[in-house]
Amino acid sequence: MRYQLVKYLGLLSLLLGLSTESWAVSYTFTTIDVPGAFSTEAFGINDAGQIVGDFHVDHGFLYTAGTFTTIDVPGAFSTQASGINNAGQIVGLFGANGFHGFLDTAGTFTTIDVPGAVLTIAHSINASGQIVGEFGNATGTHGFLDIAGTFTTIDVPGAIFTQASGINNAGQIVGFSGDGTGAIHGFFATPVPEPSTLLLLGSGILVIFIRKIAVTK
Q1: What is the model's pLDDT at position 42?
Q2: Is the pTM of this model over 0.85?
Q3: 46 contact partners, CB below 8 Å, separation of at least 6
Q4: Which residues lie below 8 Å from residue 179, measured CB to CB, with a gap of 6+?
Q5: Domains along the chain?
């Protein structure tokens, strides 16, 4: 009995001792081809396994459990779907008198244009509906964050261009930028609380401190 226990414990130790890399290299691949399309590209996926992308020629698609739905912004000559959140909201790019970003909420399309930009592309959307992407204007190419129609420019310090590619539910943003030597660098940006938020937090702490002093008296 003791020998069997030692044997099983030894086997368990061997399994637990395997590196995580040996567990992470095996995948099952599924080909995604829109029926009749010459080419299909997948760009985004949510936790439900819904996939978005584009197919030739110039249409976006939503792939849900084996069913394809074409995504075409009304009046556009091309549409590309780039990101999807867990609510099924889709963002991307469309062409019509220039190129613009879009938000697709259950088939209702909203155009995303950074004010003053000649080009806007939406790449990713999180659970809160925060959208990131890139835009071009007279000063170059910049990243952006769109929160309910309020735009914040994202520029990596010292970079000659910046593109924001993804955003998670914590508001952390990833992307890439270029420097003056021609090198390309990835970046990871974490939100910093605004001064007003810090002031509110500090006021709350002060109130608690004053009340504590009053009670001790």
Answers
A1: 98
A2: no
A3: 84, 85, 86, 88
A4: 158, 159, 160, 185
A5: 34-216 (2.130.10.120)
